[in-house]
Write a structure and sequence with these properties.
The complex is a heterodimer.
Chain A (H helix, E strand, L loop, with lengths): L4 E12 L2 E12 L3 E5 L6 H8 L7 E6 L8 H7 E4 L11 H11 L7 H5 L15 H13 L5 E5 L7 H16 L3 E6 L2 H7 L2 E6 L2 E6 L1 H6 L5 E7 L3 H5 L6 E7 L2 E6 L2 H14 L4 E7 L3 H15 L1
Parallel strand pairs in A: 3-7, 3-8, 5-6, 6-7
Antiparallel strand pairs in A: 1-2, 1-4, 8-9, 10-12, 10-13, 11-12
Chain B lengths: L2 H15 L1 H25 L3 H31 L2 H7 L4 H29 L9 H25 L3 H18 L14 H5 L2 H13 L6 H25 L20 H8 L1
Helix pairs in contact in B: 1-2, 1-5, 2-3, 2-5, 3-5, 3-6, 3-7, 3-9, 5-6, 6-7, 6-9, 6-10, 9-10, 10-11
Classes of the chains: A alpha/beta, B mainly alpha.
Chain lengths: ~300, ~270
């Protein structure tokens, strides 16, 4: 167990009867980083997290969270980590203030109620849990998980069911925790969220590790073609559909032409020269590298084909 | 205040704030007392002699069998126990706190019932208050741990309700709450002896009230209640499930061990 890692998972296997939900999974998470576990529904993300959190017994393999084996040292583990579960609850009559006190006492702390203000629950401190909105419940869950200042936070689909504003707020809070030196391990199927938030991520498919690295590394490892999307005032590009070096035409839709290219520099220069030559006017031009979502779809498709 | 005492305090307050818990802990037994006090005394002249222990056992049993089991199933199904678990709450807390909380509510409602029974409905007052308190503690703990065990081994609310009613209804009819035990047909003795409420009533009659029940029979009943508390607690801890979709299927049949002290009482 290395000191630089908050979490080490080695050859983790989890079977439910004959079904192998997690298949020989290994990865490490450096301290003070945000690590994302990605995968389609049923990929084994939650099972992996629950084995790490000590909620499920693993079939084989090794897990160390800050040097603690969750299978044998549950008590020590729960003092060191904070957990926001995908499916969990708080008694309906319990208010956010009560919840902070209740769980705080079990962690042996007197909780800082200002945390509720920071999590946007300042005006809802005395409202029963059952009357909170989905976003407020999520934020309360995160506040409770982080109240005892754990070194490692585990979040399972933290922004599921949240509106855009709440999601962005929660992202900011998660970054704040990382910046305060905590390690955050989160499972998500939201690619944009993972790309924006995570320092490192792993994609799991069918319980197996498909790829691991920084978002840029994971994206760069796949199809390297850049997408060029263009629209002009007189529609000359739509009419002629000029050939661009190393490019292929992908679509023509709603006044836009879309190319994919291995040589974005030359293609853009050629495209601009063509528009000028046609005495047309550029309205919109977008040059985008492949997103994590595209890379994810690529990996998923390849795995399905392999199966 | 540590986590355990804060949890216990919270649990007690919830019992007063939650309307459905309030109903089963206080309002339902008090409404039943009013009905029984007004009508049963006219139908059954012996009822006033039984009123205090009968209504106390009824109140304790209603909240234990109908409340504790369903609360436990609801919280487990809602994933509340999972939240507790990852925050360091131990199974022993989730077993003992509802029992302790129930004991406090049962005590409060029993005080109200005892006072009203004696002053308003002419019920016979216990002769030995110390014994009355001791028997109350034993019957309350026996029934609450039994109710909790039902909640632990029941896979769903429907099953929990079925199991709880399976003990509750025969207890109301046969244990001596409504009709003196010596008026129950002898061929029902086996069934009657399996009910914790029967031993509670017998204990009250033998030691707290002036009645014809022998101290030997009363002592056996108290021993049965004490043994059942221990057996139920061990079973609750052994069979406790943090969540519904547990990988390890609970050995629910083990809950039948809870009947052993009562079966032994028949042999004795």
């Amino acid at each position: 167990m290395s000191d630089q890692y908050a979490l080490e998972v080695r050859s983790l296997v989890k079977e439910y009867g004959k079904h192998r939900a997690v298949d020989n999974l290994s990865f490490s998470v450096a301290k003070g980083t945000i690590f994302g576990l990605l995968g389609p529904n049923g990929a084994g993300k939650t099972t992996t997290l629950e084995c790490i959190e000590g909620l499920r017994d693993r079939t084989s393999g090794e897990i160390y969270v800050l040097g603690i084996d969750p299978a044998t040292h549950n008590g020590a583990l729960y003092r060191a980590i904070g957990v926001q579960l995908q499916t969990s609850g708080i008694p309906g009559m319990m208010t956010p203030r009560d919840a902070m006190r209740f769980f705080g006492r079990y962690h042996g702390i007197i909780p800082d109620m200002a945390l509720l203000d920071r999590f946007g629950l300042g005006g809802r401190k005395d409202v029963p849990y059952a009357s909170l909105s989905v976003g407020q419940k999520r934020r309360l869950s995160l506040a409770v998980a982080s109240a005892h200042s754990p070194d490692v936070l585990f979040l399972d689909e933290p922004t599921a069911g949240l509106d855009v504003e709440s999601r962005l707020e929660l992202h900011a809070l998660i970054r704040e925790m990382r910046d305060a030196g905590r390690t955050v391990v989160m499972a998500t199927h939201d690619m944009a969220e993972a790309e924006n938030l995570c320092d490192e991520l792993a994609i799991i498919i069918g319980g197996k590790l498909a790829v691991i690295g920084t978002p840029s590394q994971v994206t760069a490892a796949g199809d390297k073609r850049t997408t060029i999307t263009v629209s002009t005032e007189n529609g000359s590009v739509i009419q002629v559909k000029p050939r661009l070096p190393g490019s292929s035409l992908v679509s023509v839709k709603d006044g836009y032409v879309q190319y994919q290219t291995h040589d974005p520099g030359s293609s853009v220069v050629k495209l601009l020269a063509f528009i000028e030559e046609q005495q047309d006017v550029l309205v919109d031009l977008r040059v985008e590298r492949p997103s994590l979502e595209q890379r994810f779809m690529e990996i998923t498709k390849n795995k399905e084909t392999a199966v | 205040m540590n986590g355990y005492t804060f949890h216990l305090t919270y649990d007690f307050k919830t019992g007063l704030r939650d309307k459905s818990l309030m109903l089963m802990n206080y309002l339902f037994p008090l409404a039943f007392l009013a009905m029984a006090g007004l009508f049963m005394a006219q139908i059954n002249p012996f009822f006033t002699e039984l009123m205090v222990p009968g209504m106390v056992v009824f109140a304790v049993m209603s909240s234990a069998l109908l409340n504790l089991s369903s609360t436990m199933i609801t919280e487990r199904e809602a994933g509340i126990y999972r939240s507790y678990r990852v925050n360091g709450v131990r199974a022993v807390s989730l077993v003992t706190i509802p029992v302790a909380g129930h004991l406090i509510h049962a005590f409060l409602v029993s005080v109200i019932i005892t006072v009203l029974s004696i002053l308003v409905f002419g019920g016979t007052a216990p002769v030995h208050w110390g014994w009355f308190f001791l028997v109350f503690i034993l019957v309350s703990l026996s029934l609450s741990t039994f109710g909790l065990l039902i909640g632990i081994v029941s896979p769903s609310q429907r099953a929990g309700l079925l199991f709880a009613q399976g003990f509750y209804i025969p207890s109301v009819v046969l244990s001596g709450i409504m009709v003196p035990q010596d008026m129950i047909p002898e061929n029902l003795n086996f069934l009657v002896s399996l009910l914790p409420a029967t031993h509670g009533i017998r204990g009250f009659e033998a030691f707290a009230m002036e009645s014809s029940v022998s101290t030997y029979a009363g002592a056996v009943s108290l021993a049965v209640l004490a043994a059942s508390i221990l057996v139920n607690l061990v079973l609750c801890l052994k069979l406790f499930q943090w969540e519904d979709k547990s990988e390890v299927k609970p050995k629910r049949f083990m809950a039948l061990i809870a009947c052993v002290p009562f079966i032994l009482s028949i042999v004795i």
